[in-house]
Amino acid sequence: MKIGIVGSGFMGRTHIEGYKNCGISEFCVCDTNLENAKKLADQYGGKAYADFDEMLNCENLDAVSICVPTPFHNPIAIKALEKGVAVLCEKPFASSSQAAEEIVNKSKETGTPLMVAHVLRFMKPYYFLKKIVEEKRFGELLCIDMKRHSTAPLWGAGNWLMDAKKSGGAIVDMHTHETDIAISLFGKPKYVTTVGSYMQCSSVYGYDNVGVSIVTSWRKPKLYPFTSGYDANFENASVIFDGEKVVIYTDDEVITDALEKEVCPEYINGADPYENEIRYFLNGIKTGDFSYCNPDDSLLTIKTIYAGLESMESKQPVNVDF
Predict the structure, then answer these.
(1) Where do the structural domains in the chain lie, given as residue ranges?
(2) CA Rg, the chain, in Å?
(3) pLDDT tens across 18-51, in order?
């Protein structure tokens, strides 16, 4: 297989390394900064391009990884799908619900594989959470709180992440992670209530039988460590992931090794979740199976995010249109 990497920044490098570790050896790299594209292409082998159309027309690509700022996802994905080239698109999916819907519809219209890189799905603590919820291993899930906090993301090229008009701010770029987990667990919420700002916010998602809240910030002080995790309260246990380990508390015991004992599929077992998601994507191209991380869920995630943005601005609950 030959893979085109679109974007030579941190995520582009992360993707190309993941493909390499999955046995892929043919690459080409596209970046509007040709010098940066050449550096990455020279490191892994392959040609560098400054123009995506040129790369798409000159190379016989099987798939592309889209690792550029969010506003550019839609045109690149549409062109690749029209060419019959499978697409792995970094989150957030798109800069609007409409743009995301266009990509999903194009994938269905052309029959070309599409997957959004929702990396949390490929981390063992979140796979474990989904499994115990579905199995009702500790009874029904009553409520779950999820969080993601960091300092300001100043590492983006041209500081684009700090421009809310380009990145959507923390509510779009970071809130997407936990929102996608909520979608994977419970499906479409009836409504979203979000308060805060583009840089830090708190959401409550309206489901009938479970309480779901998410808090996100990238306004933490420079010395504040990155933190993420969940606190899930079941009928018969509380399951806590603090970003490093999962601990289960019951009335009778504290379980600290449940994650190590859990049997997981190959696309979860790897230590690197980015490599896990790429392995799943490559297998999906071969088998057509993207049921664990499917485009419809990704579309619902982005629609839920933008409903939250509307709620934040209107200071009212907003229904999710899907």
Answers:
(1) 2-117, 120-319
(2) 20
(3) 999 999 999 999 999 999 999 999 999 899 999 9
In angstroms, the CA 156 to CA 82 distance is 29
Distances (CA, A) of 202 to 90, 177, 225: 23, 13, 19
Nearest partner of 170 among 121, 131, 228, 212, judged by Cα: 228
Q: DSSP 3-state assignment of 295?
A: helix
As its CATH architecture, domain 120-319 has: 2-Layer Sandwich (3.30)
**Facing residues of 6 across strands?**
30, 66
Q: Which phi and psi (to 5°) does residue 120 adopt?
A: -60, -30
Q: Which two tokens stand for residue 38?
A: 């050449």
CATH class of 2-117: alpha beta
- Run means of pLDDT, 10 residues per run, the chain, 322 residues: 96 97 96 97 95 97 97 97 99 95 98 98 98 98 97 73 74 94 98 94 97 94 94 99 97 96 93 97 98 98 96 97 82
Distance, CA of 227 to CA of 243 (rounded, Å): 6
Helices and strands counted in the chain (H then E)? 13, 15
Give me the DSSP letters along 33-93.
SHHHHHHHHHHHSS-EES-HHHHHHHS--SEEEE-S-GGGHHHHHHHHHHTT-EEEEESS-
Give dist(CA 216, CA 178) in Å, integer: 9
The Cα-based distances of 260 to 172, 236, 255 in angstroms read: 32, 21, 11
The pLDDT assigned to 152 comes to 80
CA dist 16 and 115 (Å) reads 16
